[in-house]
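If you are new to this repository, start here. Below is one unmodified record pulled from the training split, so you can see the exact layout before writing a loader.
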Amino acid sequence: MDKFLTALGVDPSTLEDTDAGQKTLISAIKTVAAELQHNITKATVLEALRRSHPELKANPQSVAAALLKMTQGDKPFLYIEKRGAGNQPTLYTTEQTHVIRLLPAQLKTLFAPERTRGTGGWQSLFKRLQNRADRETGEIILDRTIMLAMRHYYFHYGVGGWQSHLKRVFGMHIPELFRKPQKTEFEDNEFLF
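And here is the target side for that same chain:
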């Protein structure tokens, strides 16, 4: 076959199996992503690949497609940390995130001006949640850190209106967040999710 290709003027060494190349690209991206863990962008992955695997000749389109592919399926390798918009890139993470689409009434509760009036802990939590939410689509991306903060505030800051506001916004989407902590026979930590 090589002689035939050479006779046609094609250098056989320049040809590679596209499936094998794609697998190599994906495994290289997984390695880079595992090292970065958070704030993974197409640009950071592309730069790292060009330094560590120049033979792959990675291009922005193939890296973007591979990153998106890694967020799909039952057990994704990557999760979306923050969706890109305009000139802001999409951020990926290796830690599981929850993408939730809030209903209009839930968005109204989340963005009510009184939620962020003042400087207390609840107000700062609602500011963080508002910064993660897209008012137009109703989408909010929650990572483990923010969910642990929500749970901590819900169970450890007494009773009052703040807990009901938080539950009104997220209760139907992640009810396990608002269940009482349970001790398990396997560990001393609280059972979370």
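Two things worth knowing about this chain: The chain has two domains: 2-95, 98-178. The beta strands are 79-82, 91-93, 97-101, 139-143.
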